[in-house]
Design a protein that fits this description.
Layout lengths: L2 E5 L2 E4 L4 E8 L7 E7 L6 E6 L6 E3 L7 E6 L4 E6 L8 E8 L11 E2 L3 E6 L1
Parallel strand pairs: 2-11
Antiparallel strand pairs: 1-3, 3-8, 4-5, 4-9, 5-6, 7-8, 9-10, 9-11
Amino acid sequence: QVQLVESGGGSVQAGGSLRLSCAASGRTVSNHNIAWFRQAPGKEREFVARIHRSGDITYYAVSVKGRFTISRDNAKNTGYLQMNSLKPEDTAVYYCAADERWTLVPSNYDYWGQGTQVTVVS
């Protein structure tokens, strides 16, 4: 089993930055792909970004491309999401997820964190 714990959320002004972390425990996630999703109140959970287990391949939602950067440190068993130029519409609970499959579909991910709130104020 893999346990994921997100941290780094908070409240920030529009245009600001936050860095989210996703710490894994239980067993290594070096053979898992890591993704970030977010869910705003009243909306469905949506894909934000994902990174291949190798760290060499990344993929972003159109809405965050060029502003967010996903990365990972397999030695630390941790994934990251650097968020720059934040907008009020980025406000949501952010979740990290891990799975051996390379997928965009939330239901395909076996492991999830509890989420961390990101609030962007204008």
